[in-house]
Amino acid sequence: MQEPGPIVAQPLTAAAFAPFGQLVALPKGGGRPSDFGAQLRFDHTATLQNARGDGAKPNLAVVQVAASTGPYRIDMMERHEFSSQASVALDVARFLTIVAPTLPDGAPDIANLRAFVGGPGQGINYKAGTWHFPLIALERAGVFSLLMWEDGTPGDCGIVAVENGPTVIAPPPAGAA
């Protein structure tokens, strides 16, 4: 049996990412004035989830991601079963997010893995329990804010090894030679 070809990352859009969570970006239209009209505020741009109750505390972290070049062999996946996880780009050229649906037995569905390329002004919010590969910064290092609920137990982050995982490639930036 021939090994399938690499998975090519697609542009990050709200519709394409919806099965895994929400795209976090400045909405087109809407909003309400705030701070005496100096700002336009867009509320509830993502569905934040905490299924742990009082024991978990929100953790707003800043994460620096080293630049990496592909292709990327998927050898593990992680999930935060009880919490959504929002990662919003603070300083990045482009980034790669790799996600997978969950099989009935709770394992990641690697056969239906998806990959998306996001850029400046974008972020993602994984639904609680969404399997994902760590974020990858493309072209140069990136900085993200990260928000999730944690209680300090192993349930904060589940990790599984992936044997013979697929390869993911990110297309070059638009206009690159």
Short description:
This protein has 177 residues and is an all-beta fold.
Which properties best describe this structure?
single chain, 177 residues, mainly beta, five-stranded mixed sheet, five-stranded antiparallel sheet, 1 helix, 2% helix, 42% strand, globular
Rounded to the nearest angstrom, the radius of gyration is 17 Å
Report the order of strands and helices. EEHEEEEEEEEEEEEEEE
Shape label:
globular
Classify the secondary structure makeup into a structural class: mainly beta
Q: Regions with pLDDT < 50 over 5+ consecutive residues?
A: none
Task: Tell me the strand percentage band.
Answer: 35-45%
Kindly describe this structure.
- With 177 residues, the protein is mainly beta.
- Helices cover 2% and strands 42% of the residues.
- It contains one helix and 17 strands.
- The strands form five sheets. Strands 2, 10, 11, 13 and 14 form a five-stranded mixed sheet that branches.
- The termini are far apart.
